[in-house]
Amino acid sequence: MSVSNIFCLGEVSYFFSFFQKESEKICNFAFININPLTMTENNPDERNGILDFVKRNKVLLAILFFVVYMLFIDDNNLFVRITQKREIRALKSEIEMYEKQIERDEKLIKELDDDSLLKEHIAREKYFMREKDEDIFITKSK
After folding, report:
1. What is the Cα–Cα distance from 128 to 62, expressed in whole angstroms?
2. Sequence-ordered list of residues with C-beta below 8 angstroms from that of 54, at least 6 positions apart, any chain
3. How far is residue 75's CA from residue 73's CA, in Å, rounded to a whole number?
C-alpha cells in the first residue's frame, strides 16, 4: 500500500465511514490522481514543459551543449578555426611565391658564376658601374 493510498483511505474513511463501497471508488480515483510526494493532483495529459523535456532528453541536451560550446564558446571555436584556415592558405601561397623566387635567384647566381660577360652586362645596366676610362651618360625617357 503506498502513501497516497493510505492518505486517501484515512481521509475517505474519516468522512465517508458509513459508505464503504463509495469510499473505495473515491479512494481508487484519488489513488490514480494524487502524487504521494507533493500530495497534488497528477494529470498525465498535462506536462511541465521545459522540465519534462529536460528529464526526457538529458543525453540530447548534453550533446547539444557540447556542440554549442565547441562551436561558439571554446578558445578554438568555429570562427577562430575559419580565420586560421584562411591565414594558413595565405601563408602557403606566400611560401610557394618565395620558393619560386629562390629558384629564379639560384638559377641567376649559377649563370653569373659561369659567365663573366653576363656579370659585366648586369653591373653596367642595373647598377650603372663603369670602367676607369669610361664615361656614362644616363638619359631619362619621357
Report:
1. 74
2. 61
3. 7
Contact by Cβ (8 Å): 30, 48: no
- 8, 28, 120, 125, 138 from 113: Cα distances, Å: 109, 108, 12, 18, 28
Digit-coded pLDDT (tens) for 2-52: 444 444 455 545 554 554 555 454 545 444 555 555 555 555 555 577 888
Handedness of CA 52, 54, 60, 64 (dihedral sign): positive
Phi, psi of 96 (to 5 degrees): -60, -45
Q: Give which of 25, 15, 9, 52 is closest to 43, Cα–Cα.
A: 52
How far, in Å, are 11, 66, 139 from residue 82 at the CA level?
68, 19, 53
DSSP secondary structure letter of residue 75 = T
Grid coordinates of 141: 625617357
- Look up the pTM and report it: 0.46
For residue 22, give the C-alpha cell: 463509495
Rounded to an integer, what distance in angstroms lies between the CA atom of residue 53 and that of residue 43?
16
